[in-house]
Amino acid sequence: MSITKRFSGKQKDGKNIDIFTLENSTGALAEITNLGGTILSLKVPDKNGKLADIVLGFENLEDYYMQGPYFGAIIGRFANRIGKARFELNGAKYKLNANDSSNHLHGGLQGFDKVVWEAETIIDGNEEFLVLSYVSQDGEENYPGNLKVKVTYTFTENNEIIIDYFAQSDKDTVVNLTNHSYFNLSGHASGKILNHKVMINADRFTPVDEEAIPTGEIRSVEGTPMDFRTLKTVGEDINSSYEQIVLGKGYDHNWVLNVSGGKPEKAAEVIDETSGRVLEVYTTKPGIQFYTGNFLNSTQIGKGKVAYEQRAGLCLETQYLPDSMNHEGFSSVVLKAFEEYKHKTIYKFSLIK
User: Fold this and answer.
1) Main-chain phi, psi angles of 58, to 5 degrees
2) Could you give the CA distance from residue 209 to residue 154 in angstroms, rounded to a whole number?
3) Which has the closest alpha carbon to 228: 261, 210, 254?
4) Burial of 282 (0-12, 13-18, 19+ CB in 10 A)
5) Cα-atom radius of gyration of the chain, to the nearest Å?
C-alpha cells in the first residue's frame, strides 16, 4: 500500500489543505483530505473487476465548509445529537452551541469536520498509515478540556479502510468520534440505495422523539421494521407507518450492537446485488447509526455534477449511544482526565461469493 500527497489549497489561516491517495497493489484506493479528515472518494472493484467511486462527496473542497450532509468527515467532539445542547459533568452544567433546532449536532457550529488537521504519513515495514492530529482547545464549542485527537487511516491489500481513533484530555470531558461516509455500492452517481440489503447485528435500538433525540428507552427490534438481524432490503419497510420510521422520515436511528467492545466485531453488512459489492463493518463501539440519506434533496451537487437525491447513499456511523450523558442506562461517554479513548472501526469491501 502506498500513500501520495497533493496540495489542494490553503485555509484562510494559511494552513495547507492536502489530499492523500491511499492505494493498494490492485489499484483500489481511497482519497482523504486533512480538511475534516474527510474521505473524498473510495474506489473498489465490482463483480467485473471495474473500479467505481462508492462514496458521496463534493467536487470542490470549498463545499465541505458548508453546513450540510457531512459527507465522509470525521465527526467530533461528539457525534450525533445532544438534547437541548446541554449536559452535566461532575456537577458542572455545560451549554453547547445549538446547530440543529435547539439541539447540538455533530460537534456544533464548527465541529471536527470543519477544521484542518495536521497530517503525516508513517511507514512501518510494508505498510503506510495516514495519521491526522488535532487539538481541540478547552472551551471549543463549550466543551471542557484540551483534547488531543489522533485518527489513523489505513487502506489494506484486502480493500479494508481501518480507522483508529485516539483521544486524551487534561480534564474530564465527553467524546464520541465517528466517520460520516455515505455509501452507495453501485457507485456514488447511481441513484437510490433502496435495493441494497442490510444486516445490523443488534437486537435493540434507541427510539427518538420528533427532534431525533433519544427518549431514553432501549427497545427490542422484534416485530418492528427496525429488525435487520438478517439481511433485508432497505426499501422493504422504509415507508412504513411505524412511528419511528415516520419520525425519522426513514431510517435515522441508533442500534445497540451485540458486541463486547474488547476487539472489533461485526456490526453490519451491506450487499448490492447489482454491482456484486459487499461492505462489512467491524467496530469496538457499542452502537451504530444507520441513516438512509433522508434529507438529501437533489440540492447537494456532488462529484461529476451529480444531484444527490433522497436516499442516494446510506451511512453506518459507529458510535456511543446518542445523548448518552443525559440518559441513565446508556453507555458512558465520559473520558476521564489523562485516560485514553481508543476505538477501531473497519469498513471491509469484498464481492458476493
Assistant:
1) -95, 155
2) 37
3) 254
4) buried
5) 19
For the chain (353 residues), the mean pLDDT of every run of 10, in chain order, is: 88 86 97 98 98 96 87 98 98 97 96 96 91 98 98 97 98 98 98 98 98 98 98 98 98 96 95 98 98 97 97 98 96 97 98 95
Q: Does the global pTM surpass 0.85?
A: yes
Q: Which CATH class name applies to 2-351?
A: mainly beta
Residues 6+ apart with CB under 8 A from 96: 82, 85, 86, 87, 104, 108, 141, 142, 143
The b/e string for 18-39 (b: 16+ C-beta within 10 A; e otherwise) is bbbbbbbeeebbbbbbbbbbbb
CB contact at 8 A, 320 and 287: yes
Instruction: Enumerate helices (H) and strands (E) in the chain, giving the number of each.
Output: 1, 29
Q: For residue 215, is it left (φ>0), alpha (ψ between -120 and 50) or beta? A: alpha
Q: Which of 223, 200, 176, 138 is nearest to 331 (CA)?
A: 176
- Active-site residue list: 180, 317
* Cell numbers describing residue 230: 438478517
Provide DSSP, 297-330.
Answer: -S-EE-GGG-EE-TTS-BEEEEESPTTGGGSTTS
Cα–Cα distance for residue pair 156/2, rounded to 1 Å: 10
